[in-house]
Specification:
534 residues; alpha/beta; Molybdopterin biosynthesis moea protein, domain 2; Aldehyde Oxidoreductase, domain 3; Molybdenum Cofactor Biosythetic Enzyme, Chain A; 4 domains; seven-stranded mixed β-sheet; 16 helices; 28% helix; elongated
Length: 534
Amino acid sequence: MQFGSISVGDAVGSLVAHSVRTPERIFKKGHLLTDADISLLRTAGIEKIVVARLDAGDVPEDEAAARLAARLAGENVRIGAAFTGRANLFAAADGLVSINAECIDAVNSIDESLTLATLPPFARVSPRQMIATVKVIPFAVDAIVLEKIEEVLQKPALQVAAFRPRNVAVVLTTLPGTRPALLEKTRSAIRARVKSIGSKLVSERETAHDRQALSGALREVPSAADLVLVFGVSAIQDRGDVVPAAIENTGGRVERFGMPVDPGNLLLIGKIGAADVIGLPGCARSPKLNGFDFVLWRLAAGFNVTSKDISRMGVGGLLMEIPTRPQPRDEPAVARAPKIGGIVLGAGASSRMGANKLLVEIEGKPMIRRVVEAVQASSAHPVAVVTGNDAQHVRSALAGHAVQFVYNPDFAHGLSSSLKCGLRSLPDDCDGAVIVLGDMPDVSTSLIEKLIAAFDPAAGRAICVATRGGKRGNPVLFARRFFEEIEAIEGDVGARGLIGSYPELVHEVDAGSEAPLIDIDTPEDLAAYRKAHP
C-alpha cells in the first residue's frame, strides 16, 4: 500500500486518508475518490490531498476484518458487518465468554496491522453485547500477513458458553433469634440470581445451624437437584465448621474452602453425589457482584469449577471499593450493538405505474415481499410496513411474514406522512431506524447490514446513507435524535432535508452495486429492469 500526499489530479481511485471539507460536501476518511469528486476538490481550491493507494497484493481493510472475524467466531457469536476496517462480534446468548487467550495473543503478535481485542475470559454477557472487535489499522493488509493469521485461527478462538438450566436446591440454617427479615433478604438474593441464569428452584428449606440437623436436610434434598446452595446463618470459618462437616457427613466432599475474590473469600465448593454444592459467603445476601457470582455463572455455563480454577480468580478478584475511591462507582455503559428498527414504506398510490407497483412480480414474487424479506433477514428489528393505498392487497402479499403493519390514512398527503407513521410505531428503546422504500427491488440484506455497521452517532455517523459512485440514494438510517424533527416535515419529500442540514453527521456507505439508485415508478422502469435482469 502507498500512502502520502499527492496532487488532486492524480487521486482518482485513491482512498481519502483524512477527512476533507469543501463547501459542497465532506469527503470522509476511506472515501474512494471519483472524477466528480476531483472536480469538486479543484473547485474548492484544493491542490494536494493525503491518500492511500492499494497495491496488487493488498486485501482491503473491510474484507480483511471480515475474514478474521469469521475465523475468530465460534458458538453463540454474531458477527457485525465490517466497516472502516473494524468488525465487531456480539454475544448471541446469555452466558460467559470463552476465549483461547493463547491464540488471541499469537494473532496480535504476527503483525501490527491487524488487532484483536476481547472482553476478559469468563465475562458474563447478554445478547447483543459486544464481546470482541477486530481492527485493521491501515487501509489494507498484505495478503501474506492475513494468510499467516488465518493459519493460526484454524479453530474458533471465541465463543459464548450459554447458560444451561440448573435445578437448584437451597438450604438455609438458623439460630435462635435469627431475624425473619434476614432470612427473607437471603432468599430474595438467591432467587434473583437463580432466575438471572435461567435456572429454577426445586426446593427451599430451613434447618438448625448444627452438623446433624444440616446433614439431615442435605440428605432430603430432591434427587432432581443438580446444584445445592447452602447458606449458613454464620459464615464458614474452617473446614471443620458446620457446613463443610455436614457435607462430608452425608458422603459428600469439600473441593475447596476459601477463594481469592473479595468479597467472597469464605466461599466453599464441593460435591454430594453428582450434585455441585456451594457453601455461600455472607456477601451473597447482597445483589452486588461477589465471588459467589463467579462460581455460579461458570457452573450454569457448563464449566467444571475446581480448586485450581478458583485459585486463578485472584487477578481481577478485588471487587471492593478502594480507600481512594470510597463511593460506589457508576456502572460503565455496556458496549452493545445498536437496536435499529426497520421501516418499509409501502403506502404510495403508484399513480405513474397505473397499477400497484408493489405487487408487480420480480423474479417470481411481489416486489414488496422481496424488499421486506431483505429487511427481515437483517439485524433490524422490529420491522414495520406502512400501508395506505390498496392496503389489503399489500398485506396479502406479505401473508406469513412477522412484520408490524401500520396503516397510514393520510397516505395521499405524501411520503412524509408514511415516514412519521412508521417512526411512531417503533419501541422507545430503538436507537435508530433504517428507512427502506418498497419499490427498490435490489436492496439487499447485506446493504442494510452495512448501514447498521456504519451507524455510530458518537463518532459523527448519525445519518447513514446508501450511495453508489458518490450518488446518494436509499435506504437511509436515522438516529433517534432526528425523529422529532421528522415529525415536522410535510409533503412528499421524506427526510432528505435533514441530510442537508447536518452534513457533519452524515456518512455515506457505498453499496458496491446500483441498488441504492434503482426504483421502479413507471412501466418503462419495470421494462428496463426486467431487460437488465432476464
